[in-house]
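Project outcomes to date are best conveyed with an example. Our students and postdoctoral researchers have been running inverse folding experiments weekly, and each run begins with a structure described purely in C-alpha cells. The record below, which covers 241 residues, was selected by the lab manager from last quarter's runs and is presented without edits.
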C-alpha cells in the first residue's frame, strides 16, 4: 500500500485528484468508481478545477458509484445520485449516458443489484475506485459483519451509520434504514483503489483498518490484501499510523 500524508483536507483532495487525473489522462475511457460522503468533496473540487483548466477531459469516462439509499428518489437532495450531480457531474464534461447508478427506488432490489454487477462487468470492470471510510470501518455501505459480501447487495444500515449520517437529514427518522451497495468483492475487483481519510475522528479506524487484523468486523481491513491501494490522508487522519 502506498500512503500519502497531506497537510490539509484541500491538499488531500489535490493529491487524490492527481491520481484519478493520471488514470484518466493515460486511459481517457477509464471506468471510475466514485464515492459519496464529506471526505471526497475536496477531491471532486480539484477534479472540477483540472477539467475547467483543460487538463482533464471526462467525455469518455464511465462512472459507477459505490452505493445508494433505498427509497430515496434521485430528486431528493440526500440521495447519493443528487450528491454526485451537485458535487461533480454537473461541473465536468461527463456524458450523462456514461453515468451508471444504483436505483434506490427500484421495485426489485435483487434484480437491480444483478444488473449493476453485469453493467460493471460489461464495461470491463472498474479501473480505479475512490473510497472513503466510515467510523466503524465500513466502505461503501459494507457494514461490520461476520462475512465479506461478494457482490452488490441490499444492506440494513447499522445504528452507528444511521447516527453518523443523520447530520444530513431533518431528523434521524428520515435517514433511510437500507441501502444498495457494491459488495466487498465488487470493490476488491477494481484494478486500483484510492481511499481518502480526513480528520482526527478517523485516526483510530484508519490505524485499525490498515495495521490491524483482516476481519469482516472491520470491512476496510480487506484492502490490506489488494495489490494496488493508495491511502491519502491528512495529518489528523494518519496521526496514529
Ligand atoms: C457513508 C458512505 C461511505 C462513506 C462514509 C463516510 O456511509 N456510504 O461511502 O465513506 O459515509 O463518510 P464521510 O466521508 O462523510 O465520513
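After processing, the design step wrote out the following sequence:
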Amino acid at each position: 500500500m502506498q500512503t500519502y500524508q497531506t497537510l490539509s483536507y484541500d491538499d488531500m483532495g489535490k493529491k487524490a485528484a492527481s491520481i484519478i487525473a493520471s488514470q484518466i489522462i493515460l486511459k481517457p475511457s477509464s471506468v471510475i468508481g466514485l464515492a459519496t460522503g464529506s471526505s471526497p468533496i475536496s477531491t471532486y473540487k480539484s477534479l472540477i478545477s483540472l477539467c475547467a483548466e483543460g487538463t482533464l477531459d471526462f467525455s469518455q469516462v464511465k462512472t459507477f458509484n459505490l452505493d445508494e439509499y433505498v427509497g430515496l428518489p434521485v430528486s431528493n437532495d440526500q440521495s447519493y445520485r443528487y450528491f454526485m450531480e451537485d458535487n461533480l457531474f454537473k461541473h465536468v464534461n461527463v456524458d450523462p449516458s456514461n453515468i451508471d447508478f444504483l436505483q434506490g427506488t427500484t421495485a426489485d432490489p435483487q434484480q437491480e443489484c444483478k444488473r449493476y454487477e453485469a453493467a460493471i462487468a460489461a464495461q470491463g470492470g472498474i479501473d480505479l475506485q475512490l473510497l472513503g471510510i466510515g467510523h466503524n470501518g465500513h466502505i461503501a455501505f459494507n457494514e461490520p459483519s461476520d462475512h465479506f459480501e461478494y457482490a452488490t447487495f441490499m444492506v440494513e444500515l447499522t445504528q452507528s451509520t444511521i447516527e453518523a449520517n443523520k447530520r444530513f437529514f431533518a431528523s434521524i427518522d428520515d435517514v433511510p434504514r437500507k441501502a444498495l451497495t457494491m459488495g466487498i468483492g465488487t470493490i476488491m475487483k477494481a484494478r486500483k483503489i484510492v481511499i481518502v481519510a480526513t480528520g482526527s475522528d478517523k485516526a483510530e479506524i484508519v490505524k485499525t483498518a490498515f495495521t490491524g487484523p483482516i476481519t469482516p468486523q472491520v470491512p476496510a481491513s480487506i484492502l490490506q490484501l489488494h495489490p494496488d491501494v493508495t491511502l491519502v490522508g491528512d495529518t489528523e487522519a494518519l496521526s496514529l499510523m
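The mean pLDDT is 97. The longest strand covers residues 192-197. The training component of this project remains on track.
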